[in-house]
Amino acid sequence: MSAPADRPGHGAAFTGHMYTMSWTAGRGWHAPGLRRLANLSVHPGTLGLHYGQVIFEGLKAFRHPGGGMAMFRPRLNALRFQRSARRLAMPELPAADFLLALEEVVAADHAALSDDPEHSLYLRPLMYGSEANLMLRPSEEYEFLVLAFVAGGFFGDTVAPVSVFVSHDHSRALPGGTGDVKCAANYGPSFVAQRAAADAGCQQVVWLDSVEHRWVEEMGGMNLFFVRGTGSSAEVITSPLTGTLLPGVTRDSLLVLAARHGYRVTEERISVDQWRTECAAGLITETFACGTAAVVTPVGRVVDQGRSSWTVGDGTMGPVTAHLRTALTDVQRGRSADPDGWLHLVPSAAHRTYSGGS
């Protein structure tokens, strides 16, 4: 069911086009093209369906003052898509082809985006093993596609603190696994813990490390940050990339922006007990999650499964979180300078039209 244009939510307000390309062992990448969004026809024995050879990405395009469209740091997504492909023994898509596919979809469907400054065009590149063969081996045929939807707020129309549930029963990733790439197999197993979080009255689950079950790693599919102290002397902290965390594009951007705005930036492992103790002592004053979908979302309350619960700060969005959210969105939407060249302008997006043929 399609979402209304004025309240697109997240994930249902699909646009009208998609870009597709095929790969076979004999021909490599071939048959690229933009076409109308349509259902896929796959054989019941499609290898990717059975053995999980599926990878994807997520990024956004924003309308800028003057009507043009710009994507935020798509080259990092292209490189991460290649890394995911290598990890799952899939062919790597050249970054230039990845970027062209994104440009074509944005140029075709930019008109679906309203003038609401909180809305954006969410882009979902996807690759799956498409060979009809159930031999337990990598597929010898692949399909790549990009589709899009108009996105509002991931947690609703307003930015409000969320409650989170620390899971001790389930782990998101293990050393040597696929936690640092974006493959479909990482997400389905997380839904049971997310359901437990909902049963506890929380919007998201917090993952601990899978070895000691004490170190805070991620929140749902988002990276977590902690703030120690207040004002210009505050310290902004996130977990180091241990190989089990996804290296988020938003995470990387916030580390750069936090340092640029004068905060001390630290990559440090924080245990769940330390999180609780430092919140109680007033040392950790804010916690926030970040990601393409969530942007920057404050954490107001923590429920540690079967143990305790506590409030972060006064339970509202703190000033450092608000400052960094504004700094990020101002760059994304062209309201402030882009000294790092993070914005990828879509050529002539405001003027190109498509007939939408197959």
From TrEMBL:
Signal peptide: none annotated. It is an enzyme of class 2 (transferase). It holds the Pfam family Aminotran_4. PROSITE patterns: AA_TRANSFER_CLASS_4. InterPro entries: Aminotrans_IV (IPR001544), Aminotrans_IV_CS (IPR018300), Aminotransferase-like (IPR036038), B_amino_transII (IPR005786), BCAT-like_C (IPR043132), BCAT-like_N (IPR043131), BCAT_family (IPR033939). Keywords: Amino-acid biosynthesis, Aminotransferase, Branched-chain amino acid biosynthesis, Pyridoxal phosphate, Transferase. Its cofactor is pyridoxal 5'-phosphate. One of its GO terms (biological process) is amino acid biosynthetic process. SUPFAM superfamilies: D-aminoacid aminotransferase-like PLP-dependent enzymes (SSF56752). The keyword Transit peptide does not apply. The modification N6-(pyridoxal phosphate)lysine is found at K182. Pathway: Amino-acid biosynthesis; L-valine biosynthesis; L-valine from pyruvate: step 4/4; Amino-acid biosynthesis; L-isoleucine biosynthesis; L-isoleucine from 2-oxobutanoate: step 4/4; Amino-acid biosynthesis; L-leucine biosynthesis; L-leucine from 3-methyl-2-oxobutanoate: step 4/4. It catalyses: L-leucine + 2-oxoglutarate = 4-methyl-2-oxopentanoate + L-glutamate; L-isoleucine + 2-oxoglutarate = (S)-3-methyl-2-oxopentanoate + L-glutamate; L-valine + 2-oxoglutarate = 3-methyl-2-oxobutanoate + L-glutamate. Its EC number is 2.6.1.42. GO terms for molecular function: branched-chain-amino-acid transaminase activity. Belongs to the class-IV pyridoxal-phosphate-dependent aminotransferase family. This is Branched-chain-amino-acid aminotransferase. It comes from Amycolatopsis mediterranei (strain S699). The lineage of its organism: Bacteria, Bacillati, Actinomycetota, Actinomycetes, Pseudonocardiales.
